[in-house]
Amino acid sequence: MPQEPKEAPKPPNEQKFITSAARYSEIGFIIPAAVILGFFLGKLMDYWLHTHWIYLAGLIFGAVVGFVQMIRMALASMKDK
Question: Where are the domains of the chain?
């Protein structure tokens, strides 16, 4: 059976670019994901507890968690350099 040719290793500059692009795109997804998750969990608790205000607490909690995680990632990225 013929073997498929192996991919040539990428140059170090291209690997650095891909790694940094992945980190920064992850930051862009963390905050909205945390806010949306907090909102939906708050709405779910509102439904279970028959209230109408817990979704706001979930929304704020999700935003705080998203920003804390973003700061952690930024500090970790500064340590790598």
Answer: 28-80
Could you tell me how many residues make up the chain?
Answer: 81
The helix-helix angle for 54-80 and 12-49 (nearest 10°) equals 160
Q: How far apart are CA 10 and CA 4, in angstroms?
A: 18
Express each pLDDT in 27-74 by its tens digit: 789 999 999 999 999 999 999 999 999 999 999 999 999 999 988 988
Q: Are 21 and 49 in contact (CB under 8 A)?
A: no
DSSP-derived letter for residue 60 is H
Instruction: Give yes or no for a contact between 43 and 55, defined as CB atoms under 8 angstroms apart.
Output: yes
Q: For residue 10, give both structure tokens.
A: 């990428």
